[in-house]
C-alpha cells in the first residue's frame, strides 16, 4: 500500500479516536468538529485505494455521503427533527449499501446454514420487541430502518469477511442508538454515545476495507 492511502486511513483512525475521546470528555465542540470530517476522510481513503470506476466503490461512496449527511445535518436542527433527519439519511445510506452489496448475495449468509441466519434474525427480533413499544408514532420508521439494517448486514457478508464484520458492527451501533432512544432502562449516557460512535466508525472502516478487498479480487479475476 502506497503512502497516501496509509496517511488517509491513519488520519481516519486518529480522528475517530479523537472524536470518541472528546465524547467521553464531554468536549462538545471538539466532538462536533471531528464528526463531520470522519466520512469525507474515509471516502478519500477509499478513492485512493480503489479508484472510482467499480460500481461497488461508487455506491459505497454514495453511502458514505449519506452517512456524512446523517452525521452533519442533525447538528443544524433540534429535538425530533434532528433525530428524524439522522434516521432518514442513514436509511438512505443503508439502502445504498443494500444496492451495492446485492450482486454478492450468493456468497452471503443468506445462502448458508440456517443457524448462521438465525444469529441475525433472533437479535433483530429481540431489538424490535424492546424498542417498538416505546417508539410511538415512529414505530413504522423504526421497523423499516431495522429491516434495511438487517438486509445490509446480511448482504455485507457476501462481499468480504471485513465487510461482513463491518455490517455486523454497524448493526450493533444502530442497536445502541435505538435502545437509548426507545427502550426502557437504556437511557442515553455519555459512555453509551461514545460506544455508538466507536462502533460506527469501526463499522464504516471495516466496510470500506472489505469493499477495497472485493474490488481488487474482482479485478484480479477479470
Short description:
With 222 residues, the protein is mostly helical. The chain contains eight helices and no strands.
Largest sheet geometry: none
Global outline: globular
**Range of helix content:** over 70%
Alpha carbon gap, first and last residue: 21 Å
Query: What proportion strand?
Result: under 5%
Can you write the helix and strand succession as a string? HHHHHHHH
Class by SSE composition:
mainly alpha
Q: Rg to the nearest angstrom?
A: 17 Å
State mean pLDDT (0 to 100 scale). 93
User: Low-confidence parts lasting 5 or more residues at pLDDT below 50?
Assistant: none
**Number of helical segments?**
8
Number of strands: 0
Describe the structure.
The chain is an all-alpha fold and 222 residues long. It has helices at residues 3-24, 28-50, 55-72, 79-101, 114-135, 139-156, 161-182, 190-221. α5 (114-135) runs antiparallel to α6 (139-156). The longest helix is centred in the last third of the chain and has 32 residues, at 190-221. The chain starts with a helix and ends with a helix. The model has no long low-confidence stretch (mean pLDDT 93).
SSE topology:
Layout: H1 3-24, H2 28-50, H3 55-72, H4 79-101, H5 114-135, H6 139-156, H7 161-182, H8 190-221
Helix pairs in contact: 1-2, 1-8, 2-3, 2-8, 3-4, 3-8, 4-6, 5-6, 5-7, 6-7, 7-8
Distinctive features:
222 residues; 8 helices; mainly alpha; globular
